[in-house]
Design goal:
single chain, 213 residues, alpha/beta, seven-stranded mixed beta sheet, 7 helices, 7 strands, 30% helix, 24% strand, binds S-adenosyl-L-homocysteine
Length: 213
C-alpha cells in the first residue's frame, strides 16, 4: 500500500507535484461559505486553499512538514499582499498545539497516512478544533482504480475513523483535481475520484485525549 514518507514528498516537490494546480481545489471552493472563522489547513503544501480563505479576510494557519512548500506558501502570501501564517509542523503532533480553530481543511493529507497515523491525526484534529468546529476533508477514494499516488480510502474507513468524538455530516463523491501529465495517464480528466467529507467535532474526544497525555 503506497504510504508517502518524507523523502518521497521531498522528491515530488523537487519536480512539479500533480496536486499543484495553482488554485484552490474545486471541492473546497464549492463549500467555501461553510468554512467559517479561523481556518487550519493541515498538509497545506504551497497554500492555495489556505490563501483563498486569507483573501476572504479569515485568519488562516497552514502547516506542512516540509520547509520547501512552506517557503513557497509564504512567498505567495507576500506577493499577493495577504496575511496568513504558514508553519513547518508535523500534522501528527497537533495534540501538542495550544491553538484552536473554528474550521479545518484537509486537502490530500489524510490519504497519505497509515491506519494508525490516521487515528493519531484525527485525535489531534479534535484537539485543534473548537467543539462544534468542522473538518472539510478531500481524499482519494476506493472508486479510483490502480495504486498510483496516494492510498484509496473507503467510505467505511472514513466512518470508522470519525466514529467517536465526531458527527459525520456528509460524505460525497468528489474529485481531487491534479495537473494533467502527458507522461502519466494514471488519473483521468478531472483528477482521481475522491470523497469529500464534512465532519463536526463534538469536543467529546478532546477531554479523553488530554487526560491520556
Ligand atoms: N493540501 C495541498 C497539498 C496536498 S499533498 C493541496 O491540496 O494542494 C500532501 C501534503 O501533505 C504535502 O505537501 C506533504 O508535504 C504534506 N504532509 C505529508 N505528511 C505530513 C505530515 N505528517 N505533517 C504535515 N504535512 C504533511
Amino acid at each position: 500500500m503506497p504510504v508517502h514518507d518524507r523523502s518521497s514528498f521531498e522528491n515530488l516537490y523537487a519536480g512539479q507535484p500533480r496536486w499543484e494546480i495553482g488554485r484552490p481545489q474545486r471541492a473546497i471552493l464549492d463549500v467555501a461559505d461553510r468554512i467559517t472563522g479561523s481556518v487550519l489547513d493541515a498538509g497545506c503544501g504551497t497554500g492555495e486553499n489556505a490563501l483563498f480563505f486569507a483573501s476572504r479576510g479569515q485568519t488562516v494557519t497552514g502547516i506542512d512538514f516540509l520547509a520547501d512548500p512552506i517557503t513557497r506558501a509564504k512567498r505567495k502570501t507576500a506577493e499577493r499582499g495577504l496575511t496568513a501564517t504558514f508553519l513547518v509542523r508535523n500534522a501528527l503532533a497537533l495534540r501538542e498545539w495550544k491553538d484552536v480553530f473554528d474550521s479545518a481543511i484537509d486537502s490530500g493529507l489524510f490519504h497519505v497516512f497509515s491506519d494508525d497515523d490516521q487515528r493519531r491525526y484525527v485525535e489531534g484534529l479534535a484537539s485543534a478544533l473548537k467543539p462544534g468546529g468542522r473538518l472539510f476533508l478531500l481524499c482519494v477514494s476506493d472508486a479510483e482504480p490502480g495504486d498510483q499516488g496516494p492510498r484509496r480510502v473507503s467510505r467505511n474507513e472514513l466512518e470508522d475513523t470519525f466514529a467517536e468524538g465526531w458527527v459525520i455530516e456528509s460524505v460525497e463523491p468528489s474529485r481531487y483535481e491534479v495537473r494533467p501529465d502527458p507522461h502519466d495517464r494514471s488519473f483521468r480528466e478531472g483528477g482521481p475520484k475522491a470523497w469529500f467529507a464534512v465532519v463536526r467535532s463534538t469536543g467529546a474526544g478532546v477531554t479523553t485525549s488530554n487526560e491520556n497525555r
